[in-house]
Design goal:
ribonucleoprotein; mainly alpha; 3 helices; nucleus
Amino acid sequence: MAHLTTNPTNKERFMCVYPAYVNNKKTLAEGRRIPSDKAVENPTCAEIRDVLSAAGLNVLVENKMYPREWNRDVQFRGRVRIQLKEEDGSLCQDKFSSRKDLMFYVAEMIPKLKTRTQKSGGGDTSAQQGEGGKKGKKKKK
């Protein structure tokens, strides 16, 4: 039982981060926890995990849904648990002293991921090609 233990290295005591916390498409009522100008567009659990594990933190991914998330799609599933404190109560890393610090770091680093930079470039060209194909089909009819 999580509420009975005070050991910060216990997995149940790790801090939880849902993608909705740093999603700029969400409102505060829908669960965003940082300002929308600093948030990221539609982050995934995998991206949050990649950023935090690269920063040297102990990270776990769970297949859970955020309660305020109305869309039950696989893309919006997942919860990331992060160990912020050592067994003696000291911080794992000094730059992450609070939940907000961690969320700001995640929102800052996700756009710099290789998957994000490649997706945005490839997405624009495929969208343009798709529109061109549709126009061509309409002309043939």
